[in-house]
């Protein structure tokens, strides 16, 4: 096929680059063959072979033979999809050009509909775009389609001016059609985002664009591709800024303003990355000086994007728009009037009048009312908000901090939402009978009343997920009676708390029982009929398929003769627990077990004093009720949730532990530094903490059972695990296999497992390396076990019930399991499997309260072997500088299990007898 001349034929050229696409190319071709029907224009498809090594070249050549008037085979020797597309642009003979990847498809009338709109408006437009759909294909070939969020911006086929819809038209990949003969070409030096730069150049010359609603680009969304790699800032942070520079360069170099449509196109990459739950934008893995240089470059590029583009960007959350605006680091002035007026360069960019407040928790514990709230507002960091509560007309200023919800729809902070709490001792009702409570704010001494409430977690009043608008009315919106105390939330946002007598309380209880949910009515009736109202049940529960601190504590407590009954709550399959009991020869004849979620479990909770849980998943490990049922039982359930912790707190994950988010009443800690973190950063009270040490630290140790083995226990990553509650058909955790095997984490593990030098070194020193992966990896063993086949010294443990105290050396990346090694004074090596990716945000958290305090840090096999050598040369003892830290680290009693039992037993009024 020859390169074409300047005059183009009436029709459309479709450019299809391919590389090793034998599994999908025929399907793509079929969707193009279907475009022939009913058309009255020419159509050519250029199949551009980009050095394929599979059978896709033969498929393409065969298509060109069977359909010579449609398909044309062209070989592109220069590697890369941009070179292939550029070659297609050189050969294209039709007046219009479309693009299709070799694993994607068009809907049946896409080409025809696009051609007709172009032909009718060829003097007015240079580019047309059309909807994009994600095409999911299962193992049986069944397809499902999901709309791209961008599709909602348009509804009707037509021509649109650039300035319509605030220039928010251009969130496109190559679901476009363009006029032939344009000078634009794909930049072959760009490994990612080349389509964005290409389209921006065309948009800069356009005054209007076309949109065809009936044409669909179906993008196959299945296997991992190189694009996935650029999701991480480790690989994309500089690239996305370089691409922005290329989009802006033609205008900045010519001294002309950047068209708004190009600004909008450039912002798209920043917008979706910023809005992502996991970090996709900021290169936190860089050292501070390099990170600041990157920030400055981003700042300078964003300053070329007009504020109105950012503040009207449809794919950015309204709160995130202001967060992105602040990345420009430009002055925003604040004025206080009837509301708060925010201005930039004399133009109002926001005003705050409603002061929407979110109730993040509302509970009663030990006859004390706790209310946690935060002010959800934009640009909150620009003003000094003070929160106040009025109780019977007496003003009290409340301490404020940045709410955990300031990590708004993200794992990192994006906004400043001032949080505060109010604590009311309800015993004061003996003196006042009724308390009238309401909240308000002061800014520069001026009072602002709350005009809007939203309740996220309210354990007493039925107003969860309700958006409440202020009304000047004493009408009761919601009320409940607990412990003969009635709480009423009024339409004017006052809370009335009133003491009632016992007879009236009984009447209210009976009426509520008649009207309650069917699922809890019998429980309420049973509770009322109990002759012994005093709770005297202790329940212990670990996570799915684990034996942890709850069971260890249960072993200590279950035979205590103190008037309390104790049950261990097992989940799903009892086999795992049974195996542990058998292995350790535990006498279970007098133990009491109950199945999580069973009717017996629910009845026991009616009289429970404590639920001791090792994992902070309230509705999965603590209560078998949903939110609505829990609210209906708010006047019945009196237990305290004692969080035993799975390990020592070391990760900065406030979204998991912050007091606003959890249902925790008491937390077991083992160190002084945890006390500081929980009180100063996570806003618990000192009295909420039980510094008695983890229950497993109270198990009898047998130091003489040391074996010549090394234990390697790395943590998991959210990037390839995702939803922790998703399991495969075998009951194993589901992981994203493609994401996993392309991760640096997997590659580092593979290097360890398949290292011949490490194998020889272990053999020389008569050592074995046991790799204990997190239980989450149970579904990936068919991938991992083959990596150690043939090895006599490196093993993957498939059992989770091991005693780390028996090992001579402990190795981890940053798992909290390391603190067991600290307690046992075992030599520690930290092996960073994926340092940059972790710091950039491939996990639930990316920062640690404690770094690598207790051992050497390595990130490759040779350095790992050197660290092992140093420990062996010390006869497996801990180096002094690390041993000193270990000796000072813990601060808890010698018998943690006994200390926890005594601490709980001493709480007033919990034990009979």
Description:
The N and C termini lie far apart (96 Å). This protein folds into 5 domains: 9-223, Spore Coat Polysaccharide Biosynthesis Protein SpsA, Chain A (Alpha-Beta Complex), CATH 3.90.550; 245-330, no CATH class; 358-515, no CATH class; 523-693, 3-Layer(aba) Sandwich (Rossmann fold); 703-889, Rossmann fold, CATH 3.40.50.12580. An 8-stranded mixed sheet has the order 3-2-1-4-10-6-11-9. Strands 18, 19, 22, 23, 26, 27 and 28 form a 7-stranded antiparallel sheet that branches. It has 913 residues and is α/β, with parallel strands linked by helices. The protein is globular and about 95 Å long. Helix 5 runs parallel beside helix 7, helix 5 packs antiparallel against helix 8 (260-275) and helix 7 runs antiparallel to helix 8. Strand 40, helix 28 (835-840) and strand 41 (855-858) form a beta-alpha-beta unit.
